[in-house]
Amino acid sequence: MPDIILKYQAEIWQSIGETFVMVGLSIAFALLVGLPVGTLLYLCRKGQLLENRSIYSGLNIFVNIVRSFPFLLLVVFLIPFTRFIVGTAIGTMAATVPLSIVAIAYYSRLVEQALLEIPRGIIESAVSMGASVLEIIFKFLFVEARSSLVLGLTTSTISFISYSTVMGIVGGGGVGDFAIRYGYQRFETELMIYIIVMMIIFVQAIQFTGTTIAKKLDKK
Amino acid sequence: MVISLQNISKSYQQHQSILQAVHSVSLNIDKGEIHGVIGASGAGKSTLLRLMNVLETPDQGTIVVNNQTLTTLPNRKLREARRSIGMIFQHFNLVSNKTVFDNVAVPLELTGYSKKAKVDRVNECLKFVGLEHKAEQYPAQLSGGQKQRVAIARALANRPAVLLCDEPTSALDPQTTAGILDVLKTVNQEFGVTIVIVSHEMDVVRSICDKVTVMDGGKILETVSIETEPYMIPDNDPKWFLEQLTEKERNSNA
Ligand SMILES: Nc1ncnc2c1ncn2[C@@H]1O[C@H](COP(=O)(O)OP(=O)(O)OP(=O)(O)O)[C@@H](O)[C@H]1O
Ligand SMILES: [Mg+2]
């Protein structure tokens, strides 16, 4: 183990922990909120089962606005909201608020796209069997789209990691912030490179895991 | 009478104009009948079939199936009613990420079968279509004819009174078509299931139907009773293909 890493061992572990909290909560919100929102986007589209123009437009505009914001501006813009939700605008927990909102918007769009790939005929056969909308979602849509849903979550996770690296501006910490503060600002170039290499390996591992699971799930 | 359409119309908004896909059609289909619907592309055959289980909501008219007026049923009741109306499609529409077994099990799960009863019924249906040995395979591993057999097993799982078929053999070669038609005939004779079959293939309709409705431009031209003629089952011999090809040529040369 290089000396420089041993020297900053405690700080490195802490920053990894912070990244895990920020990215982990983003993934949780992507699944708990983004997945239902994306499904609703899909179902409320023109010609789909729950066709509803106002719900579709509302969700669609939310997703577009969040996704078109430059991320740092979104973080700043959301400060009052963040303060309202977690009581403070500074720290790792505060940083998860804008991250989670981006996560919801980002993943819901990928969910909508994954569901749009399902052949219409499958849904028709489900309706002809007398399935309810919930049954169609769980027994048909999510089953048929499961490998795209996993791939989408993999892509999203990697984006969340990338977004989380700039959360230093609200004291969110994390690996990216550590690399900037210690590696860049204190001229510990070696340390910075180690951190970058670590992140590359980490992202590769996530992509590999996601692709492998998706492949396993895909029987088409 | 197991299916009765009274004065049914269905139109679609297409760009600026309105397209009348089915135009005040009335049609009665008796219990135990195999009823064909034939006509040119765009005649409204599929739309008519999809109206029979209200996959398409009619603009006007009444649809009665199994003594239930589907057009006035509340949503929940309509879903229940659909369980006794099976449907199969040209492109099979199986869930590709479910095994053959699980595909056939879905309608039973929707009806709330117990685990044990479900397993028994799925195996029974797969045996009927001759695919019990494929239970653990996925649709992608099956031929077109096998996929359609799975779709038939799935449609029969809930013991429907009616089976609606939209071009069930149009994606299949002649040999496989003959096999599927045999299965459908058996379904009709053994279980007394009323079958409505939409097709544009004259041979198919002629070989299996008791009555045929001819459609044109969204209207019924006529419904006639026919004598069934056996579907010409070609053997698998490549020579047969050659013979057919050269015979055609000879005829056109003559
Ligand atoms: N969902 C829809 N939206 C708009 N128009 C439709 C829709 N479904 C059918 N149509 C139109 O209604 C007419 C009848 O269609 P239908 O599918 O019933 O014809 P078909 O007789 O089954 O033809 P084919 O042999 O090509 O399957 C066609 O002109 C078609 O374009
Ligand atoms: Mg058709």
UniProtKB/TrEMBL annotation, chain A:
In terms of InterPro entries, this protein maps to: AA_ABC_Transporter_Permease (IPR051322), MetI-like (IPR000515), MetI-like_sf (IPR035906)
Indicate where this protein resides in the cell: Cell membrane
At the top level of its lineage, which domain of life is listed? Bacteria
Q: Which SUPFAM superfamilies match?
A: MetI-like (SSF161098)
Q: Which Pfam families match?
A: BPD_transp_1
Enumerate the UniProt keywords alphabetically.
Cell membrane, Membrane, Transmembrane, Transmembrane helix, Transport
Similarity-based family: Belongs to the binding-protein-dependent transport system permease family.
Q: Know the name of this protein?
A: D-methionine transport system permease protein
